[in-house]
Design a protein that fits this description.
4-stranded antiparallel β-sheet, alpha+beta, Gyrase A, domain 2, 2 domains
Length: 194
């Protein structure tokens, strides 16, 4: 019977045995595991502490930013108030300067009128507020009346630094032309540039 094959079965169990043999850990391994767990717990505590600090500082900074934003409105209001205050101060000082530099022309003309003789005629009054000088032009009867005009102006306490800038005396009277002396006089008046 050599033709017949013999079949044998072999049973192999690849699963572990139900009763596992527990090996106790040696002391070195236990110590390493305990140190590792302690190290992990310490890292967790440190990380949690850092996270808490960052979280509280972030919240504090957010609150500060909200307060700063609310104060920005107050700052803008104060800046506007300061600008308005500066504008008011500018206008107050400008008005005061204008009032102080204002020239009362009626008083000037009155001072000139009481200082000149009747025969003298003032044709033009020019006020130079930069140099604080009054320039008058006009004519009078003759050279003697021009001298009286200058003397009368110099006697007025409100007028000073009187100068005859120009005068013209006709040499030969022409027919149908005015026969008078023309002049230009400059002086300082106390009512200018207070």
């Amino acid at each position: 019977m050599a033709n017949q094959l013999d079949i044998y079965e072999i049973d192999i169990n690849l699963l572990p045995h139900k009763r596992k043999i527990k090996k106790p850990l040696d002391r070195e391994t236990q110590t390493i595991i305990k140190i590792g767990i302690t190290f992990l717990i310490a890292l967790f505590v440190i990380y949690a502490g850092i996270y808490y600090q960052v979280y509280t500082k972030t919240n504090y900074l957010n609150e500060l930013n909200i307060r700063i934003a609310s104060l920005k409105k107050v700052e803008d209001t104060l800046n506007l108030r300061n600008k308005l205050g500066e504008s008011v101060f500018y206008y107050e000082t400008t008005i005061e300067k204008l009032v102080n530099s204002q020239i009362d022309v009626n008083n000037l003309l009155n001072d000139i009128a009481i200082s000149i003789p009747k025969e003298t005629v003032i044709e033009n009054v020019n006020l130079d507020s930069v140099d604080n000088v009054v320039k008058i032009t006009g004519h009078t009867k003759d050279l003697q009346h021009l001298a009286w005009t200058v003397r009368g102006l110099s006697m007025n306490p409100n007028l000073s630094d009187i100068k005859v800038d120009n005068y013209d005396v006709p040499y030969v009277p022409l027919p149908n032309s005015p026969n008078y002396v023309t002049f230009s006089i400059s002086f300082k008046w106390k009512g200018m540039g207070k």
